[in-house]
Amino acid sequence: MSRHFALADMPETIPVFPLPGALLLPRARLPLNIFEPRYLAMLDDTMKTPHRLIGMVQPQAMPEGRAASDAAARLHRIGCAGRLTGFQETEDGRYMITLSGVSRFRIKDVHEGFTPYLRADVDWSSFERDLGRRELDHNFDRHAFLGVLRRYFETAQLASDWDSLKEAEEELLVNSLSMLCPFDPEEKQALLEAPTLETRRETLVTLMEFALRGGSDEGSLQ
């Protein structure tokens, strides 16, 4: 059963799950296979809370040979929290879960040592729009968008249900593709931080066209 959150409902501190390349966006769903003991403990603790929120966040890309001095420096400042809405325990002790995206957040401080997993004090105020209705992209050209997407999928040898893509709501379409396409973590972070659905769609198209040019900056965007 889905739950509607208001800004006043959002907790000040949440567990965070740093996972490179795993992008969660508001009103989208992210399936995860959990097996590390510290994250199994995180899920056990999360299920005891009234909000059941977990923050997905991208680790920072550190220069080779250089380690971050603390947990906060190892994480991007913006992540997205999802509510634990699906849970299944396997015979070998893994958890198969689904997170339903609720809202992005900005990390204020990170706590380590109190629990085997990281916890963060977070600020939701910049992303109150995430808690509202689905976003619209008034300049969305589905035909042009699907043309770029088809070329990208063919080049990347990805399969898709094109009939479903033609009918999908624009927010679901753009956000699902942002999550599923095999972009690197920094590119995923750019998609997460896009302030509007239109900006995210433009960023997504830019990344696909960049990949179609073989990662070269040469040439102009269509």
Automatic annotation (TrEMBL):
One Gene Ontology molecular-function label = peptidase activity
List, for all copies, the residue spans of the domain called Lon N-terminal. 14-212
Specify the superkingdom: Bacteria
Q: Which Pfam families match?
A: LON_substr_bdg
List, alphabetically, the InterPro entries matched.
Answer: Lon_prtase_N, Lon_prtase_N_sf, PUA-like_sf
Gene Ontology BP term (one): proteolysis
Which sequence ranges form a coiled-coil region, renumbered to this chain? none
Task: Could you list this entry's UniProt keywords, alphabetically sorted.
Answer: Hydrolase, Protease
Name assigned to this protein: ATP-dependent protease
Q: What is the lineage of its organism?
A: Bacteria, Pseudomonadati, Pseudomonadota, Alphaproteobacteria, Rhodobacterales
